[in-house]
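Troubleshooting log. The previous structure file for this entry was overwritten by mistake, so regenerating from the original sequence record. Sequence copied from the archived sheet and checked twice against the printout by T.R.
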Amino acid sequence: MATREATVPVAEERVVETFLTLARLDGPSGAERDVATYLEHALTGLGFTVRYDGAGAALGGNCGNMVAWWEGTRPAATPLFFSAHMDTVLPTAGLRPVIRDGTIYSDGTTILGADDRAAIAAYLEGVRAIQTSRRPCGPIELIFTVNEQPGLLGSRHLDFSLVRSRAGFVFDSSGDVGQIITRGPYSTRLRWRIAGKPAHLGLAPEDGVSAILIAGEAVTAMRLGRVDDQTVANVGTIRGGRLASIIPDEVDMVGEVRSFSAEGLRVQLDAMAAAVDTAARRRGGTAEVTLEKKYLGWDLPHDSPHVEVAVRAARRAGLTPYFAETLGGADTNIFIEHGLTCLTLGNGFRKIHSFEEHVSAANLVAAARYVIGLVQEFGADDDRA
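Regenerated output below.
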């Protein structure tokens, strides 16, 4: 068994500066090239080889997913990956960071982009600290995805033949560093095309069948929001109609269901589809629904080896590990679906997707320490050095 060495020190000012540099790079979904260029330069300087896949072209973006590999000092050891997404939900052009009481905000005119630049900064600092310390470690792989925010599109188009590691971690949750998410949701999107019958409002309104009324009646009949402790559901968009003087004959409606349970997902999807069908028949219209699987759920037991690595690494880094489950999706869902062993970990950002988004310097530093601890613990029992 390998000797357990002390935790590698982190350059605290450097990880904060790295985050600020990343946050200032504008990279909304589909436009991640500037972020990738920065990372490619930084990573090749650290001895990584960098490759891209074709996800950018497939998704209409300007950059593909990046897969970077460093063989470490023990090339024969089991490799470990870390992953984060390069895109932000909104642009960060013109970002002006403000630091108050050890916490980083934007000035309120843009988002901060800590989701998920905080993770990227932690990974870079973790690698730099390990290399500076000259401590032994196995290969480290970094997977940086594009177009995560619209629905994990980058990871869904990831060329997994480029990925050599079979196990890793994704820092992408608003919990403080030390949070270990062991359960993620199944998610499916519903798309309806509701058809009614047009008629002129002033001349023969009784001849029309309003597709908007069908949609409204159906949504009113649905259980939405938090359905139960396993399942959430929403109807997010309703679009239809042409003129105020014409009874609307077409509506497009989109909803989504997430559940920790495959059965709970199915039951809620069936109920929502039935609500639309019932309303359409009652009013003399029709409805067609298309189901679009977004991702599958996952559940790792607390006593599984990968979870135990995460717990030991947190303690090694001076953190208090705690378990959580989330109905939010992450690239973790897609990685597990492709046979990789993976966990989502907290990296401490708050109020994501808003102009009030923020992250503390303490969480940035703690995340870098956690990365180092994970590398050390993952390879602690690997005798193939």
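The chain has a mean pLDDT of 94. Archived copy saved in two places this time.
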